[in-house]
Amino acid sequence: MKRPPSIREVAQLAGVSLGTASNVLNHPERVSTATRKKVEAAIDELGFIPSEAGRRLRRVDSKLVGVIVFDVANPFFSEAASAIEAYLAQFSCFPVIGSTGGDPTREADLLRLLLGQEVRGIILTPSSGAAESLKLLSSRRIPVVLFDHPALEDGMSAVSVDDTRGAEIAIEHLHSLGHRHIGFINGSARVRQAQARRVGVERSARASHNELTLTEVHAARFDAASGEKAMHELLTSHPEITGVFCANDSLAIGAMRAARQRNLGIPQDISIVGFDDIDVARELITPLTTVRQPMTELGTTAAQLLLEQPAHAQDIAFVPELIVRESTAPPRSWRI
Amino acid sequence: MKRPPSIREVAQLAGVSLGTASNVLNHPERVSTATRKKVEAAIDELGFIPSEAGRRLRRVDSKLVGVIVFDVANPFFSEAASAIEAYLAQFSCFPVIGSTGGDPTREADLLRLLLGQEVRGIILTPSSGAAESLKLLSSRRIPVVLFDHPALEDGMSAVSVDDTRGAEIAIEHLHSLGHRHIGFINGSARVRQAQARRVGVERSARASHNELTLTEVHAARFDAASGEKAMHELLTSHPEITGVFCANDSLAIGAMRAARQRNLGIPQDISIVGFDDIDVARELITPLTTVRQPMTELGTTAAQLLLEQPAHAQDIAFVPELIVRESTAPPRSWRI
DNA sequence: TTGAAAGCGCTAACAG
DNA sequence: CTGTTAGCGCTTTCAA
Predict the structure, then answer these.
(1) Strand D bases with any atom < 7 A from protein Cβ
(2) Domain span at residue B97?
(3) Which of A108, B3, B256, B289 has its CA 20 to 30 A from that of A196?
(4) pTM, whole model, 2 decimals?
């Protein structure tokens, strides 16, 4: 790989000193128009692009922002990542992306690598065992925004969605439609989101004056295959169930498939509510009623907080919104 | 932001010279165990992480790989990006991601910015007007792998899928099931993929000994809403159509929705074939028959070619594969 | 307005 | 095996 042209060569070609060439780039007002033109001509001729590495050595802000998430291929994260990328682009910044798969060790490794890259800051979805990593970060005083996670003690900003409230409105919706026997297909009890959503479900149940009978099952993973399996379990053990809340849209898609395999109409025989509102939720044959997480706003806000660094850490919790589509309706017993 | 500890401070704390500390990091075998221990202790105590900026100045390979695609949120790209990220991670490398939205100007800007970051190489999905950008790249002799695009003259490696062949097998499938009147919902005629897929459709039509009547319509965008609209047009103007090939899965999802709105059974009344095989294709209520593009292999191969830099540029075209699911069947007229 | 020179963190070449 | 030193590309004093 040929060595790219340096600012020294630019200066030489333009017949000025290195410092003057640098001024053309960083303080053009200090340079006379004539010399500026000369230098710019040299820059064009050589195809000179300033090296960020050299620049960073002088402690100029990096244009790289680390983004560490659970899994980039997951639509929830890829939609958010897309928004982060778009926001950063306005400032000529780039996301440098890594996935942890939920492994705290991997998370710590990624963090070290990103710190080595001297990123300007890090947007992080912390795993449960992330205490160690977070200590590393605070000791470095590098800007961090927690993503899809409420704020922790240490004065880092955070953006998240009120998972508990989201689950609550999902159950309220089924309740108000007239459903009394409700299934809840949750993810692994170890992940924070699953725990928070369960709290919301329980809160709704209590608020219903004991009108509701709730049955929770845990899917192995947050995907459609697990949702399908969990739905079959649920319907076999509790055939009285008429409404099901799934902890994300992929699980809900699997649940719909299971219902269909049993010749149950959606929503005639069984209502299904998802969580996330990924792009395809509205595109399904039976468009999915779901609790919308504003992925784009989450991503944009996280990027904004990172770049702007408000004086005080912000803990922003977005309010989830119920999007009613065609997968929910009153149970048969309530219809004429 | 506090200045992070430098290797100089490490050396000082360990009571050795700067060069020795450097050797501990880069050539540990040259250092005695005793001093190595001392230095490692100092590294731990200070939380020292070597600066990639300083390192890169010495022309050490960068750990950053630029990835420029059309749109990160598009499942085709996000699945590939995930594979790229996973492959790079094995070498402690990271993708630095940018989206062009198909704008050649934006593409050129992103390229300049990435070159400024001194990335180790670039994985690029070139837009149609990318000639200028590519010239910039070849003049820099920076490793480039074209993604989802066949190789161009200039000796860059490329990974892509044989779009023409993919369209061909889709039409062959419908033909062999007995369909004679076939609709083709294509994307904008300006994008290369749409052009290539049309060629495949035409080739199949010719190979059928004029048994096939094909009708092409162009959707405005590659999304479900456009597919739905196009499908309605198609079925209104050509009610004899029994099979439809869509240039991607999102269009196919929209087409399915349109068919359903018209009370047409899939596949009883109309067969639908997609293209891509995105994750949800198999999860739809009627799982979609589609032409699979191996996104994971595409991403992995691109990353591998970039890091390994084979002596000669490779132009790798993956062979698409027909995945038959439940959205296709013989037309009514062929059944008993 | 311009030029000269120091120095950011690091690696490698060389000397001891 | 260890220390010394030059220099990567750049920005920023400081002097002229």
Answers:
(1) 1-13
(2) 58-161+296-318
(3) A108
(4) 0.93
